[in-house]
Amino acid sequence: METISKNGRTAIVFRVGHGLVGKMPRDMQEGLPGREEFGAEIDNAFVVERKLLSRLGIHPRIVPYYGPCTLEGIKDGLLLGEANCGDLQSYIDKHNAKIDDALRKKWSLQVAQAVAYTHETGVIHSNLGTTNVLVHQTGQNLDLLLANFGGSRCVELNLDGGLLPDNPFSDPCLTDYESPKVDVFSLGVVIYVIMTGHYPFYNGPAPQNAERFVYGERVRMLFEQGHFPNLSDVPFGGIIAGCCCARRFETAKEVVAALEAEMGQ
Length: 265
Description:
This protein has helices at residues 26-29, 35-56, 88-95, 101-120, 181-196, 209-224, 237-244, 252-263; strands at 2-6, 9-13, 65-71, 74-80, 133-138, 141-146, 153-154, 159-160. The protein is an alpha+beta fold. The protein has two domains: 2-81, Phosphorylase Kinase, domain 1; 86-264, Transferase(Phosphotransferase) domain 1 (Transferase(Phosphotransferase), domain 1, Orthogonal Bundle). The strands form three sheets. Strands 1-2-4-3 form a four-stranded antiparallel sheet, with helices on one face. It has a two-stranded antiparallel ribbon with strand order 5-6. It has a two-stranded antiparallel sheet with strand order 7-8. The model is unreliable at 1-30 (pLDDT under 50).
């Protein structure tokens, strides 16, 4: 990932990975196996991201989008607002012991509000996870922004970025990938991570490299068997269960309402 500042704004260009917000220059693709297919996927992700960010417009919980940009050494990119504290998972891994319950609850509501807004505009994020939520600090306030719509879907616009959530944010029992429930299960897991500071069935910082794949297979099997961590002592445990176990929530708007009710808002 490259982050390039220009006129007080920040262009974030992902060259390889999920949720692409820029295209990899063609000269970097030369010689790669399957580069034509890979290039087509990147092109599609760029188009999807640009069109969906334009559709979403301005919202306090969505990463600000200022339009396409062309910078030296990069043929195409998207000019986005800065998120100065990185992604949510990295922030939790580094600062978990210092995050109080009030902030965790605020974050849970903020990410639910972001997903609810995308659903209201007809967009399914399809790749929701703690690395696609960004942390931004303004003064003493730490707030969350939903980002990375290159893999998202919008039936009305006939756009499909072709991504699904990574484990542990993916519901192995779901078959309708155009349903908001794709995001609702993921949202429940994101709230679980926010409130506990760790992945389901995993202690400590998020697994990396080969360990991530081993963990992913294990947690997927546990989810398929109907297992989920004990939620009796987890704040918002009933809401998390409604997303991931009972699956009683159809959209993120219902999750927002449940969170607001529990928070007395």
